[in-house]
Amino acid sequence: MAVSSLSKSRDTKAALLDALNGPGPFPGIIDLFGVGGGLLEYRASLLAGHGFATMALAYYGFEDLPKEFDSRNTDYFEEALCYMLQHSQVKGPGIGLLGISLGADICLSMASFLKNISATVSINGSGFSGSKAICYKDTCIPPLGHDLRRIKTHFSGLLDIVDIRNDIVGGCENPSMIPIEKAQGPILFIVGQDDHNWRSELYAQIASERLQTHGKEKPQVISYPGTGHYIEPPYFPMCPASLHRLLDKPVVWGGEPRAHSKAQIDAWKQILAFFCTHLGGTQKGAPPKL
């Protein structure tokens, strides 16, 4: 079930749902990618192959959606959530969220502000409102902001942006942090220790601290050494560098090929096991191998 906006692509949604085995309904997942924009369907298709009714949701840079990423208003994503919950082939009472990078932060925002979200997976998210405010109804989380003077030049000549974000004053109580303690369901943090988009491992530690400070259970954090920013499904080639859409310049994403590839295999197993456990699937849990 892949959509660009909720008023379009009904034929595409039906085609992916028909590909699922059995009569349904199926556990539902909304799948979000990052700052590159557009509509990417391959991860949703793979999840559908494992029995999940998955919506690959674009939020800018596709068809009639905004050309550039302007703000993180949760209303659009709430509409997507309502669509999924009302779909006859989606098993309730809640659904799962899967996001990477900026998409992960949107998922964490949805889990914090919206109801009926049973499980959330953050792949190298930050847990903060970064360069744009996150808004839901009358609540706005101010952006943490960044300083482009902190950009470094990698030995390859590419840019390294890992340290451009402003310092996290106040730690887990920083006002720019997403209030993940409000999430109803569990959160799985998948982290690359060599992420050069931002310091994902540090952010996951701060998120864990925030949850525990607010009386929540310690979340599951799976951290992979030698692993960069773009943790894809198994056997996808590692993306060590590419053009950053917002900066319009090439940047490094980190990762060592062998370690990164091994991490992708294990992380996918962990994601499937997590969703099966919390959305009512059948696959048994997979112990981390790294």
From TrEMBL:
Gene3D superfamilies: alpha/beta hydrolase. GO terms for cellular component: peroxisome. GO terms for biological process: acyl-CoA metabolic process; fatty acid metabolic process. Residues 75-280 form the BAAT/Acyl-CoA thioester hydrolase C-terminal domain. One of its GO terms (molecular function) is fatty acyl-CoA hydrolase activity. InterPro entries: AB_hydrolase_fold, BAAT_C. This is Acyl-coenzyme A thioesterase 4.
